[in-house]
Amino acid sequence: MSAAAAAEPDAAPAGAQAEAVTVTARDGRALAALSLESPAARGALAVNGATGFPREFYLKFAHYCAQRGYHALVYDYRGMGASALAPLASDPARMSEWGLLDMPAALAWLEARSPRLPLVTVGHSVGGQLIGCMYNQAAARAHVMVATSIGYWRGQRVPFRYLALLFWKIYGPLELARRGYVPRGALWRGDSLPAGVFLEWRKWCLRPEHFAPDLVGNQSDGPFAAVRAPLLSLSFSDDPIATPRAVEALLALYPNAAIERRSITPAEAGVRTIGHHGFFAERHRETLWRAALDWIDARVG
Fold this sequence. Notes:
By secondary structure, the protein is an alpha/beta fold.
């Protein structure tokens, strides 16, 4: 949870047959989703995105997952992309609802669509942070966290942490007062943010204490501690947000999960940079993507 600058999404892969579907959360909120089906599925996989990244950003990765034998679902959280209400200034979405309502809805949709297949989640940034908020997280056989950490600004690298502070203290509040939402701009290159999403995110990133107690109460014996499935944490040495200290602070919330940590350098992936969102670039198809899906294969049997 930090003011990551979102990259432009890749175009949809040639030949991909993405079906537009609607996922409905328990409170009735409709989420715009895209489903990719595998002709010989061994499992079903929900991609829970990062803040400001539209569902299309993950389509190439989802296409690869389908080729590897997994039905894949990508979607926009409430208040984001195709799931946002118009005008955005009137959208009541909050970030906590992504973990409490939207992520569970995506997993439940996959379970209903493919009731006999093992389920997996792949969470990018906030999409991995909020696993412990999901009322149905135990339905997943395994979880993959990509560039996932706590979002406290002091845990980020210089100079990024000071750009983040400007975003929280100046750019975001000024734009919110002016427009009623936070638009894409110089200090925020992701999708526009509704007020409730920005304000809750800002609160969590400006304090050292973690967000979990706000959402689910005591951490020691609450839903985060109930996560017991295998969990793969992928972090990258050039990520200014998910630094080693910030990653470990997040993983400490999952004391009973079987966690495997992989800290990867760009050189190990054969590239110059990976950063906070580079994992999902198609150039990693035969390196990072293959390794992640191999790990998933081993957990779904």
